[in-house]
Amino acid sequence: MLARIDASIVGPGFVAVRGPSGAGKTTLLSILAGQIEPTGGSFAMSGFSDGMSIDWIVQSAPLLAHRTVSENIMLGPLSKGLEAASAMRASLGAARSLGISHLMRKRGFSLSGGERQRVAVARSVAWAGELVLADEPTAALDAHARVAVCDGLRAAASSGSLVVVATHDDYVSARADLVITLQPAMHDVN
After folding, report:
1. What span, in angstroms and rounded, lies between the C-alpha atoms of 158 and 152?
2. Half-sphere exposure of 123 toward its Cβ, with a 13 Å CA cutoff?
3. Of the candidates 146, 68, 55, 140, which has an alpha carbon nearest to the alpha carbon of residue 103?
4. What is the pLDDT of residues 13-25, one digit of tens each?
5. Phi/psi of residue 173, nearest 5 degrees
6. Eight-class DSSP state of 71
7. pTM for the complete prediction?
């Protein structure tokens, strides 16, 4: 159960949502994405277009296993209507910024967990939507990859996206414009 939250999040920007496991970080992201309704209180988002574009980066970093890294990253820009040549340029730029351009011809099934995570982030930031939601995007990464992912998410925020990251990572929180800290809701046990 997500406790009551009173916060104003105005985009674009980079927001970190912190808290212990079970505090509701992923639930908050799901509410922001419109995937679930809050069970109490009220929720409103303003300042976004009617057809708001949302990118969601999940912990499992799903990829098309038999497609190349290049094809997987291009899915992001292509889904937003970019033509193929522009999508390829955006994808290559995102791959370079995340340190994975050398992987562009590898297939999704052949990547490590950390490589898959960086491909998922690259797919999102190659042509980021108005709202980018990331659930623990640095959890499986070494220090070098963590910096690259955080820099990629910051770049998306600088380009006009509101980036909201659920994280336990102090490095990510230190780079955020706003940090929201959640605590688990307390229940009476009788």
Report:
1. 10
2. 30
3. 68
4. 999 999 998 888 9
5. -60, -40
6. H
7. 0.87
